[in-house]
């Protein structure tokens, strides 16, 4: 019972919003090619390969915290984020949250053949807004996206940066208790990035918790006070952003990972 | 330290602070409420898909529209002219056209609904909403296309000499029944297709076999003379045959269906929707897995 008492004491300053408990994700990938299908047909050998993308990650996020996730490509960051969002069921382990987390990803597919205007409407409705609310927020979304007259052009005609800006503007238009951001800041020009960093700060003040995945160490340093470094699906380090980013940067340099990205981050 | 050591203490800690596990299936009422809340999204999404298909290729849309008419022409040649299955059916052209157009709606709805999770996987992985919205909206999209195809079907009926009667009003409940059935079937097959890719490969053949068994181009009774009676009964009570009967009852002057057929039709629709919905909902937490 001493433990229960301790948690009551810590509740005053530490208010957990997300508890990630020993999460594992295993993707099953089918081997391709003629020999693989032949083997499968004959029932010989295993052509199904398992990819262990996340291997036992545990951490607790608290109210008011902004946590950065760093790691090289394929380290499991984005997968972990989707699991926390409840969009991908973990193979093992559980994620506990105090509210429905929202994932703000740049890959949210909207309808390409439609104009930005229609996409704003659709995106907002999908987020659960009423038509009235959509009308109310419409102007500020357009303004935030900075798309100007492009808003009446089909999204097919957008550059990838423009598309990402619009998606970010839609998703950021409502406040979230737990906000998960995947690389949203990597797109757009410097001005848009500054605007979205500001918006994330605002959301963070309203929100309980922000978790940010980014390859740009600059934006992690700018927005997060705590950072978790993930490699091969496991936590390498978890602590204050400056320490973790410094260590990660050294490690990445030594391993020649993401040189171009670091250069860009240094420019930030 | 809040970093968890052993997992049971982490779980206890989370529960002690009132946190709930994510990725759980929502309760049934919660789920219904979520769908009702997003009813504008369902229709907006269906219209948006229609609109974007139009924008991409107007000619393509035209072919989509004209496609059932061509099919009807081919069936007319094979069944009406060569095989003479048309004997004993008054106004065979209208009989055939109603059958082909309606079955096109049924087939397109169910296959679009079944693949809707897969085709919208980006949306599924990015946003939270009750997934049942996708198959439902896909069927709605096909209903909109069917509405457009009426501009071809109705003139054909009139040209072949069908009069406009009060019973045409029955066409609306008939379509409502068919669409409700299709939504149920879509939900069911969407769940199956989400788990096994092969389902969407086999489905078109199943749908085609179903069409041949349902009397789109002939009255089922014509071919079952040599079979035991239960075969005829089963074929006549299958939802495809039932839906064709009520639709023809509504639109064709020379064709009528007994009231009991309408009862069967409503029963199939409600049964399909309830079962499809429950089956789909029971796996809600798992959609979006690769």
From the spread of the alpha carbons, the general shape of chain B counts as: elongated
Spatial strand order of the main sheet of chain A: 5-6-7-3-8-9
* Share of β-strand residues of chain B: under 5%
Assembly state here? heterodimer
Shape of chain A: globular
How would you sum up this structure, described in words?
- The complex is a heterodimer of chains A (268) and B (290).
- With 268 residues, chain A is of the alpha/beta class.
- Chain A has a domain at 1-21 and 59-101 and 176-268: P-loop containing nucleotide triphosphate hydrolases (Rossmann fold, 3-Layer(aba) Sandwich), CATH 3.40.50.300.
- Helix content of chain A is 42%, strand content 25%.
- Chain A has ten helices and nine strands.
- In chain A, the strands form two sheets. Chain A has a six-stranded mixed beta sheet, sandwiched between helices. In chain A, strands 2-1-4 form a three-stranded antiparallel beta sheet.
- In chain A, helix 4 packs across helix 5 (131-145), helix 4 (116-126) packs parallel to helix 6 (160-171) and helix 5 (131-145) packs across helix 6.
- Chain A is globular.
- By secondary structure, chain B is mainly α.
- Chain B has one domain (28-285).
- In chain B, 72% of the residues lie in helices and 1% in strands.
- Chain B has 13 helices and one strand, in the order αβαααααααααααα.
- Chain B has helices at residues 7-16, 28-37, 39-56, 58-82, 92-114, 116-119, 121-126, 133-159, 171-195, 198-213, 229-237, 239-251, 259-282; one strand at 20-21.
- The longest helix of chain B has 27 residues, at 133-159.
- Chain B starts with 6 loop residues before the first helix and ends in an 8-residue tail after the last helix.
- Residues 1-6 of chain B have low confidence and may be disordered.
- The chains are: A alpha/beta (268), B mainly alpha (290).
- Chains A and B meet through helix 1, strand 1, strand 2, helix 3 and strand 4 of A and helix 1, strand 1, helix 3 and helix 7 of B.
